[in-house]
Amino acid sequence: MTTLDSGVDSLADVTSSEDRLRRFLLGLPGVDQVGAEARAATLGTRSIKTTAKAYALDLAISMIDLTTLEGQDTPGKIRALCAKAKRPDPADPTAPQVAAVCVYPDLVATAKHELKGSGISVASVATAFPSGRSSLAIKVQDTKDAVAAGADDVDMVIDRGAFLSGRYGLVFDEITAIREAAGDAHLKVILETGELVTYDNVRRASWLAMLAGADFIKTSTGKVSPAATLPVTLVMLEAVRDYHEATGLHIGVKPAGGIRTAKDAIKYLVTVNETAGPDWLDPELFRFGASSLLNDLLMQRTKLATGNYPGPDYFTLD
Amino acid sequence: MSRFEYAPAPESRAIVDIKSSYGLFINGQFTDATDGKPFKTVSPASEEVLAEVSEAGPADVDKAVRAARKAFEKVWGPMSGKDRAKYLFRIARLIQERSRELAVLESLDNGKPIRESRDVDIPLVAAHFFYYAGWADKLEYAGVGDDPQPWGVAGQVIPWNFPMLMLAWKIAPALAAGNTVVLKPAETTPLTALAFAEICQQADLPPGVVNIVTGAGRTGQALVEHEGVDKVAFTGSTEVGRAIAKSVAGTHKAVTLELGGKAANIVFEDAPIDQTIEGIVNGIFFNQGHVCCAGSRLLVQESVYDEVLARLKRRMGTLRVGDPLDKNTDIGAINSAAQLAKIRELSQIGEDEGAERWSPECELPAHGYWFPPTVFTGVSQAHRIAREEIFGPVLSVLTFRTPQEAVEKANNTPFGLSAGIWTDKGSRILWMANQLRAGVVWANTFNRFDPTSPFGGYKESGYGREGGRHGLEAYLAH
């Protein structure tokens, strides 16, 4: 087995030039689409009941990055979202808090103020989210603004155009620049897998982001369809598992967009459990980027505890 | 934070109604056996007795063959293909309607996980009947002459590893082609065949078209040696297949045999590694390795041996062994005490011959027949575990350096049922597929079945094909 030091050294070597980086990424083992999708489908058939379901529902709630990323967002909307983040179920104080609230940079200060002392992080998208089509200077400034406003997590997007045209060095340099600009904030790197299309690309982009200093790799902005899918998340979980094997470092994974039901969320947790392993069943290492998912989790949670489904009006809109 | 432990998620047994005893299904009726002693079928996961089943003796077999002959001459043979198709479509729909019940029954009697009986076996059973129903009125287009005719009465003997799927592989093409059948299910797994007899009644299938005679080797022998049988179809061990081939030699009977295997699953250094590991696991641990085409010999290119083995062991650690009816079980029970003894014996021989044995830590239930998923490393071509069919969850790992060496090692077996190739290089897949002496070659997948795809062996893995247009050919005189 590779020791931690030699693993880090050899990977540092990989990023010493664009040519080496390129050869490394293109040399990663391929992903067979049929096989990867079949594996995800099989994991999706796990039957999670009773005590396991109760555990999974609470874990899923505690992993949510409760998100609103709309042009129409207002400070009022953010305050409501933060109240919900702190106490997701008004009728049940035992429901856990979510992990973070995720907003645009201009609303970070509002969220930060609302969440003070709660332990809930504020995540901000940055770097000309969602398209990433802007100069590096603007992306860096966008990141600095978010951090200055108090963002604990920065969710950046990669330059998909550069990635798809094979300019891996450019993508790498951009991530390292944002990594630096983000300072102590957690860096989540959004791959926008719906635009990368192939699982081979997803694996390469995952490694590229990890090598460049990502704390988390994230599937999607939520603005492109398809957003998160189970097979894409499976491939990313395999990447963080293999990266951990090589370096000893734990990188997180965040599927975002399109996960709306408790049933789906549980399939993701099963996939985490049986791919990266139980270490990743922790909000520090796995998050859901979601909004409507929370209400379904709360509804299932109440059903499990009381035997009855409350109507949707018993849960808050945001 | 505590770990994510999956709570038990058992599929309910309430859906199946197992009778305390079963007769033989002859001429559309369940009838008592006249000359055999009843025997018990047990659940291999608990050793619980599920039912008492009649043993058909030579007189019973004779009765069944006569009923089949009469149905062939009076009803089924003269019937138009279009009308035969109606019955087959009806049977297929009834199987779908009763799929959950059949899946539970199969898992109870056989020991296979409900995930497999529910998601693989029973859907494929229905698919086979649907597929061959479509052929019943199109036989002249099957490519076997412009006026193909059925043989008459087919005597069919099937194994215990896929009880209902093997029944479908045998009965669906036989009936579509216009034959009538007498089928003997394996003595350890008769219950789904008896449930199928009920489905035949439900479908109003004319009496005598399908007859089910239960029993062991003696019953099977009486069936294949019966003079009134025109076509013999057997799936099972090479040893029994050889005896059947001898007994039908020099008679008028047509015969197809689907026998054992010792398939090579060949992994090249450029394989899609994570899917390859899944394929290795699926190749050998699917259905507890009770699969004639199981990928029981893993051939790994030396340059990726360490990585493949480390990943395989890690993956094996996540396999869930236990109650077949639990929806999260990956590996169920070994079908019988006799099979368990054979797996244990061959595994012991593997150790004695110097191979290194490894299994993940797993707790096996106290009752029933169980064997942990096992991998042997340091295996050479000369070892018995690399040559003999173990028919259990036991994988032998060998290495190779060049594609030529892989082909030589893969083909160096008396068997030739299946093989697997794992590589990202399309040209190599095609080259390998041409070199491998195996009836089925899977590329970047393993143990995939479809009614439209022919299946069968080279060499001592048997002859004839089942499935697809080719499977129809076996039931038509031309």
TrEMBL record, chain A:
Pathway field: Carbohydrate degradation; 2-deoxy-D-ribose 1-phosphate degradation; D-glyceraldehyde 3-phosphate and acetaldehyde from 2-deoxy-alpha-D-ribose 1-phosphate: step 2/2
Stored PANTHER family: DEOXYRIBOSE-PHOSPHATE ALDOLASE
GO BP annotation list: carbohydrate catabolic process; deoxyribonucleotide catabolic process
Name of this protein: Deoxyribose-phosphate aldolase
This protein's record includes keyword Transcription: no
Leading EC class: lyase
Entries under InterPro entries matching the protein: Aldolase_TIM (IPR013785), DeoC (IPR011343), DeoC/FbaB/LacD_aldolase (IPR002915)
Entry GO CC: cytoplasm
Species of the source: Kribbella rubisoli
Family: Belongs to the DeoC/FbaB aldolase family. DeoC type 2 subfamily.
An example molecular function term from Gene Ontology annotations: deoxyribose-phosphate aldolase activity
Keywords assigned by UniProt, alphabetized: Lyase, Schiff base
Keyword Protease assigned: no
EC number(s) per entry: 4.1.2.4
Reactions catalysed according to its record: 2-deoxy-D-ribose 5-phosphate = D-glyceraldehyde 3-phosphate + acetaldehyde
Domain of life (superkingdom): Bacteria
TrEMBL record, chain B:
CDD domains referenced in this protein's UniProt entry, alphabetically: ALDH_F16
KW Oxidoreductase (keyword) present: yes
Database matches in SUPFAM superfamilies: ALDH-like
Active-site annotation: E258
Keywords: Oxidoreductase
Domain Aldehyde dehydrogenase residues, every copy: 31-476
PROSITE patterns, alphabetized: ALDEHYDE_DEHYDR_GLU
GO MF, any single term: oxidoreductase activity, acting on the aldehyde or oxo group of donors, NAD or NADP as acceptor
Keyword Oxidoreductase: yes
Family: Belongs to the aldehyde dehydrogenase family.
Name of the protein in its database record: Acyl-CoA reductase-like NAD-dependent aldehyde dehydrogenase
Organism in which the protein naturally occurs: Kribbella rubisoli
Lineage: Bacteria, Bacillati, Actinomycetota, Actinomycetes, Propionibacteriales
